[in-house]
Amino acid sequence: MKDKFLGIFLGFAGYTIFVFLDSIIKKYLVQDYPVLEINFYICLFSLIPISIALQFVTGWGVLINNKVHIQLFRGFLGLICAAIIINSFKEHAFSEIYPILFSAPLILTLLSYFVLKEKVGPRRIIAVLVGFIGVLIVSRPGTIHFTFSLFLLFIGAIILAVNVLLIRMYANNQSSVAFAFYGFVTGLVLSAVFAYNTYVPLIGNDIYIFLACGIIAGTGGLCISAASKSLESSLFAPLQYFQLLAGFVFGYLFFSDLPDFFEILGSVIISLSGLFIIYREYKIGLRPYVSKESRVRDVINRGH
Questions:
Q1: 3-state SS record for 52-77
Q2: pTM here?
Q3: 38-42, 179-183, 235-239, range with the lowest pLDDT
Q4: How many CA atoms lie within 13 A of 181 on its CB side?
Q5: CA 20 to 30 Å from 26, out of 2, 50, 85, 86?
Q6: Using CA atoms, how far apart are residues 227 and 10, in angstroms rounded to an integer?
Q7: pLDDT band at residue 225, thresholds of 50, 70 and 90?
Q8: What are phi and psi of 67, to 5 degrees?
Q9: CA-to-CA distance for 162 and 157, rounded, in angstroms?
Q10: What single DSSP character describes residue 292?
Q11: In whole angstroms, how far apart are CA 252 and each of 114, 150, 220, 249?
């Protein structure tokens, strides 16, 4: 029971840390630096807590496995997703961004049906359709509210779902810390390559902001990884929806953003649909939500 409470605390802490990270990026960095340069420094400094965890907790041996190519490919996809999310900070509030990203579990259900040939019953199909209605309510396509960056966020949600699908298909027994390490290393190298020609010299003490962001990103990922290991997946998976609530709170505290009626309604619909899908998959025993052997849970976040 004590481990369960610790796992819940780490899960809440991890998702709160990621929202705090997004708040810093949105407030202090995104208007002054190219997106890939921001990603480069965050990936660079995130390796500090990841390396500490490898040295003192898991050991470096977890990096030696036969799924490195899958982990590197997930890192590549994660870089694209991170760039899409950071770019959206320029125009939109968290109350618009996070609900669209949390359509990823809905997309994952569809991908699992078409790719993994998992049986998807009428209840989950209805939940997916209702969830997408929530996405439409938040994004409001066809109105002045809808922008290209919001459309890209839906592409980002697809990438998040594909990343989890890759775990289900190929790497469900791999170390989550190894996934984090390879993801950040891939992001670091590719960001360096593509950001070279658009590099903007750092202003003042911004290097310390980047350092803090990297440490926060790595620490948040480790918290979520630890929570996923200490909790059954049926309990861990719903914790990610706390990020929606944290996004509303931090959006108000940092930017005085208040969600409007459509954003609240859409967020509630998306969250309830996703939670229902998690519940149904737990009830019918679909992997990996109830797999005690799994070392990597279905984590919907851009760093893993």
A1: HHHHHHHCHHHHCCCCHHHHHHHHHH
A2: 0.89
A3: 235-239
A4: 23
A5: 50
A6: 5
A7: confident
A8: -120, 20
A9: 9
A10: T
A11: 40, 20, 21, 5
Q: Are the beta carbons of 57 and 177 closer than 8 angstroms?
A: yes
Query: How many angstroms separate the CA atoms of 92 and 18, rounded?
Result: 17
Q: Give the domain ranges of the chain.
A: 2-284
Structural contact between residues 292 and 282, judged by C-beta atoms closer than 8 angstroms = no
C-alpha 58, offset from chain centre: 22
User: Three-class SS of residue 158?
Assistant: helix
Q: Considering only CA atoms, give the Rg of the chain.
A: 18
Residue 271: band (very low, low, confident or very high) from pLDDT cuts 50, 70, 90: very high
Distance CA 290, CA 101 (A): 24
CA distance 222 to 127: 31
Neighbours of 171 (CB within 10 A): 21
303, containing H or E segment = none
In order of 9, 35, 130, 134, the CA distances from 86 in angstroms are: 27, 6, 27, 22
Quickly count: other Cβ atoms within 10 Å of residue 68's Cβ: 14
DSSP string for 84-151? HHHHHTTT--HHHHHHHHTTHHHHHHHHHHHTS-----HHHHHHHHHHHHHHHHHH-TTSTT--HHHH
